[in-house]
Every structure is written in C-alpha cells, then in structure tokens.
Amino acid sequence: MILLTHGDREYLRERGEELQTDLGVVEIPEDARPGDVLETHLGEEFRVRRLRGPDLFNHFERTGAPMLPRDIGLVIGETGIASGDRVLDAGTGTGVLAAYAGRVGAEVVTYERNPEFAEVARENMRLAGVDDRVDVRTGDLTDDLDDRSGFDVLTLDTEDAPAVAARADEVLVSGGFLAVYSPFVEATREVVEAARGSLSDVRPVETIQRELDVDDRGTRPSTGPVGHSGYLVFARN
C-alpha cells in the first residue's frame, strides 16, 4: 500500500489501482515508488509516499479510540522498546501500539478479547508490514498469564490491568518494564497500588500537549483546549 497526497488530502491505495477524485483520475503504476509525482487526467499532481507510523494511526481501520502517537512515543521512550525485544501486550484494539513496537523491530504477542476486533487488528498488522512480528491472539491475557514469562516489556490497556500489574514480576525479565495506559485517574491509582507490590520505580504521569499559535504578531501557546489524552504508569522489574 502507498499514500497519494495532494495538499492536505491523503488517499491509501494499492499499486495498479485507479484513484478517482474531483481533481481527476490517477492511474497508479505497478512500479510507483515513494517520491514519484503522478498526474491526474486534469493535470493535478499527486505525490507518492511510503507509509510511516503517523500514517498508520490515520489510516488503520479503527475498532475504538487508539492510543495517540504522543502516548506511544512515551511508551517506547520510557521502556526502550527496541529490535529483538519481546513485548507482551493486552488490549490490542486497533493495534497502533503493537504496530509501532513491531516496526521498531520488537517481537510482539498481543491479546484482544473481541474476535472481530482481533481480526481487524490482524489486517492492520498486514497493512503496517509487521504481521510476521506481531502475533494477535484472540483471548484474555489473564487466562494465559501462568504461561507468559521472559518478556522485556509488558504493555496494558485493559480494565483488568491492576490484576496483571500485580503479577508483572512473573512476566518480565530482570530490568524489564511495565507500561499501562488508562483514560481514567481512578484506574491509574489502582494500577499504581498493584504495581508497587511487585515492581520498583513505579511512576504515574499525565500526558498533555499544547499547540502553539504562530502569526505575524508573535508566537504563544494556543488558547484552545489543553490536549489531555490519558494517564500512563511506568514501572520496572
């Protein structure tokens, strides 16, 4: 799959397909490569782009509200997920976090309870090109927890995260990290209390991002809403 862009417009298409827009029709050649410029029959130019992480966030088929790239960036930065790591994930959802981890070279096992959501996630992994590194399993991680060990990172986005966090030391290698995302502060407190029983360096954070307004008068933080997205808890075995 490739992206065709024109200004702020983006279209996800296969090579060899035809793109029809109000700007004209584009015949996408089989050998289209990132950086190529394709013209519609009306002479409008579309650029070819390779899919990258933010593009996956925008174009994955969604089964709910996925983690935002800024939260995923914190997870990767704080846990150091890297090539060769083994990552255990629960609450796959759309699969954005699992895809990012797979794209940096980690081997990921991710659990999704809803069979339909799991199948969508598998298709998204294929789109991301990481279906050989991300194993999407249909089921509940807590049912398999006794058989899960030796992971470098454990990531959770589930209602039962406190129960799993309480046993994170059984899952993680020495020095491994736990990262838990929650949209609610009450659940975050439960995770913190559970993680303190098995791990060290337990640290909850809130993720907030403010945009800047840049114009002829100067530059200042936007007066729009503060960009709160959720809460993250990090801990280490």
Question: What does this entry look like structurally?
Answer:
The protein has 237 residues and is an alpha/beta fold. It folds into 2 domains: 2-50, Vcp-like ATPase, Chain A, domain 2 (Roll); 55-236, Rossmann fold. The protein is built from 8 helices and 15 strands. Strands 9-8-7-10-11-15-12 form a 7-stranded mixed β-sheet, sandwiched between helices. The chain has a 4-stranded antiparallel β-sheet with strand order 2-1-6-5, with no helix packed on it. A hairpin with a 2-residue loop joins β1 (2-6) and β2. The longest helix is centred in the middle third of the chain and has 14 residues, at 115-128. The protein is globular. The two termini are 39 Å apart. The mean pLDDT is 92.
Task: Report the count of strand segments.
Answer: 15
Coarse morphology? globular
Spans of at least 5 consecutive residues with low confidence: none
Looking at the overall shape, the CATH architecture of the largest domain is: 3-Layer(aba) Sandwich
Q: Please give the largest β-sheet.
A: 7 strands, mixed
Rg, Å, rounded:
20 Å
Number of helices: 8
Which percent range describes the beta-strand content? 35-45%
Q: What percentage of residues falls in helices of 4 or more residues? A: 25-40%
Report the structural category: alpha/beta
Mean pLDDT across the residues is 92
Could you give the order of the helices and strands?
EEEEEEHHEHEHEHEHHEHEEEE
Find the CATH superfamily of the largest domain.
Vaccinia Virus protein VP39
CATH-defined fold name of the largest domain: Rossmann fold
The domain count comes to 2
